[in-house]
Write a structure and sequence with these properties.
alpha+beta; single chain; 11 strands; 51% helix; 2 domains; 375 residues; 7-stranded antiparallel sheet; binds zinc ion; PH-domain like; 4-stranded mixed sheet
């Protein structure tokens, strides 16, 4: 068949060109079937045509609405004819010339288009924010992993010299008391606790600091208890709990990890790719500033988790750690001080208590702990 080729259409002819949009219609007379067909516009009506049905709605009686919730369909209602349900998924229909040329429809289309656009904007914004947080999370997690990698690759001498420098710093700032009785208590408890640690050969030195403020802290190879801490704690389980927490910091190399993380990604990366002597210097230099430094919440929780495992494995009742925490909180409340600002930090004591209580709830064996009466 030959096709007739006329002159190119004029611009206004294009505008008036009749477009069709696939749509579906439903009417009780069609039974359970939905008629699939096309919508076209004439000058005054919207026409739906299918094999099963034909429907004309005068444009001035036409109302448009979008489905609710997940229903993304566009419905065409006629007030006088509520039994018909006519809808399309083709939102391009709103751009049809019929809509821009009819005031009644234009107002409705603008409202729907505006709302749809707004929803899209909100979704895009939300997606962007989510992406940003995910990216930030990945970067910080990646940094943490890199730092861990660097720290694990460092020769033990780095930690040793770090410990030695930091010890001098502590001795400069605090009076260290010689109390053989308290030292013996710590030594014996540690011998017991060590049985629950992954590396049972870790040796540490204990020191008692001459201050009333209850606290404990650690640097590589050394654990410090204040006199105030012994005044606060009564049972051997509480002292063992505190000791276990400090051992968590030491075993996880938290001080070294903090120092390296402080230096930023460039230093961490350069340590990975070999300039290790620079890193050692940096670590030892930084160690002068680490005494009394505050640990991140993550490190505190990590130390608590480790402590819990050591205690349980060594058959020491881990409730001692919870009781220590409760006593510290009481002390903080009573004295209106935050112990975290004094020595090593223990952020949000209540949060830590809550986490440990949940550990206790999920602990299978809640009895049969070793009696620590002789300690
Ligand atoms: Zn801590």
């Amino acid at each position: 068949m030959l096709q007739f080729r006329g002159p190119p259409p004029k611009l206004n002819a294009v505008k008036k060109e009749r477009l069709s949009y696939s749509a579906n219609a439903y009417h009780p007379s069609l039974g359970s079937e939905t008629a699939a067909g096309l919508i076209t516009f004439t000058q005054f009506t919207l026409r739906f045509e299918s094999d099963l049905a034909r429907l004309d709605i005068p444009l001035n009686e036409l109302t448009i609405r979008v489905g609710q919730g997940d229903d993304a369909r566009l419905y065409f209602d006629r007030v006088n004819d509520p039994e018909w349900s006519l809808y399309t998924l083709d939102f391009d229909i709103l751009k049809d010339y019929a809509f821009s040329s009819n005031h009644h429809l234009r107002v409705q289309a603008n409202e729907i288009f505006g709302r749809k656009y707004l929803r899209k904007t909100i979704i895009i914004t939300a997606a962007f924010i989510l992406f940003f947080f995910l990216a930030a999370f990945c970067v910080s997690w990646g940094m943490g992993q890199m730092v861990r990698h660097v720290v694990n690759r460092m020769p033990p001498d780095v930690e040793k010299s770090l410990g030695a420098t930091a010890l001098k710093e502590v001795q400069k700032r605090f009076a260290v008391v010689d109390d053989p009785k308290l030292m013996a208590r710590l030594e014996t408890l540690y011998a017991r606790l060590r049985q629950g640690m992954p590396d049972t050969n870790v040796t540490v030195q204990f020191h008692i600091l001459d201050t009333d403020i209850p606290n404990a802290m650690s640097i590589p190879g050394h654990v410090f208890f204040t006199r105030g801490m012994f005044d606060l704690l009564n049972t051997p389980e509480e002292i063992a709990g505190t000791l276990a927490h400090e051992m968590g910091h030491i075993n996880e190399k938290h001080i070294l990890r903090s120092i390296i993380a402080d230096q930023g990604p460039a230093r961490v990366l350069s340590s990975i790719f070999g300039k290790q002597s620079g890193t050692i210097g940096m670590v030892v230099l930084s160690s002068q500033f680490l005494v009394g430094r505050t640990f991140s919440k993550d490190f505190e929780h990590e130390a608590d988790e480790d402590a819990w495992k050591y205690l349980v494995k060594a058959h020491i009742n881990p409730r001692g750690l919870i009781e220590t925490m409760e006593k510290l909180k009481e002390y903080e409340d009573r004295n209106h001080v935050n112990t975290s600002s004094i020595l090593s930090t223990h952020p949000s004591t209540q949060d830590r208590i809550d986490r440990l209580e949940s550990n206790w709830r999920s602990l299978k064996q809640k009895t049969g702990f070793v009696e620590l009466t002789d300690y």
